[in-house]
Amino acid sequence: MPNQHQISLKEALRTAIWAQGLTPEQMARVEAETFETFVAKGGYVCRKGEMVENWLGIIDGMVKMTNFSAAGKSVSFTGVPAGGWFGEGSLLKKEILKYDAMALRDTRIARMPISTFHWLLETSLPFTRFLLMQLNERLGQFIGMVENDRLLNPDTRVARCLVSMFNSHLYPGLEKLVQISQEELGLLSGASRQRANQALQLLEKQGLLSLDYGGIRILDLEGLRRYEA
C-alpha cells in the first residue's frame, strides 16, 4: 500500500527525531554518507548472524524483526513502520545480528554507515540522548510483548500489537490510519490471517477502530490500550 507522497531520502533524514539537534555540519555529513536501498516484499533487510554495518531507517514500507527455530517455527518481535530506525543495539555492541529483518511489503531502507553512527555518538549530545531514549522505549516495548504473548488471548494481542505502533519516539511517522494488511498484523501478533481478521471485526464492533480501504483507522487509541478480552 504505497504512500501518496514518495518521501525522498533527504526528507526522511531531515525530518527524523534524532536529526533535530544536529548542527548543519553534522547533517551535511549524514546526508553525504547515508544511502538508500530497496527491499522487495518478503526479502531480507538484514540476516541473523551478519555483522551489522549500518543503522537502518524505514523511509517507506514496513519491516518485521523475526527469528526462526531449527524446526522452522517463527516468532515475530516487532514491526517497524516508516519513520522508525533500528539496529542501534548491535552497532553499539559491535556484535552480529541476533534476528532477521524482513520486508512485510516493498520497502525503502536508509542505511547510515557504522562510522557515521559512531561519529554522531561522539560529537552530538542530542543524538546520544535520543539513543538512550530509543533503547529505553525499545526495552519497554519488548517487556510488554513478552507479557502479551504469555498472558493474553489473540483478540487482546492484536489490539496491543496495533497500540505498540503508536510510540511517538520509536515510530514518529505513523498516523491514525495504519497501512498494514490483516496478513501482516497476523504475522506480528502471532495469529493467522483469519484469526487477526476476527479480532479486528470484534474491535471494530466495539468502536475502537474501523477497517478502511488501505489499512486500519484507529478511532480510540486509549480504548485499544486498555482493551482486554
- Indicate the percent of residues in helices: 40-55%
* Secondary-structure element series: HHEEEEEEHEEHHHEHHEEH
The profile of the biggest β sheet is: 4 strands, antiparallel
- Gross morphology is globular
Number of helices: 9
How many individual β-strands? 11
Regions with pLDDT < 50 over 5+ consecutive residues?
none
**Structural class by helix and strand composition:** alpha+beta
**Beginning-to-end CA distance, first to last residue:** 30 Å
Q: Which band does the percent of strand residues land in? A: 15-25%
- Overall mean pLDDT: 85
Radius of gyration: 18 Å
Strand order of the largest sheet: 1-8-3-6
What would you say about this model in short?
This protein is of the alpha+beta class and 229 residues long. Helix content is 42%, strand content 23%.
Features:
229 residues, 11 strands
Structure, described:
The chain is of the alpha+beta class and 229 residues long. The protein is 42% helix and 23% strand. It has nine helices and eleven strands. The chain has helices at residues 9-14, 24-33, 88-93, 114-123, 125-151, 154-164, 182-189, 193-205, 221-226, and strands at residues 35-39, 44-46, 54-60, 62-68, 74-81, 85-86, 100-103, 107-113, 177-178, 209-212, 215-218. The strands form three sheets. The chain has a four-stranded antiparallel beta sheet with strand order 1-8-3-6. A hairpin with a 2-residue loop joins strand 10 (209-212) and strand 11 (215-218).
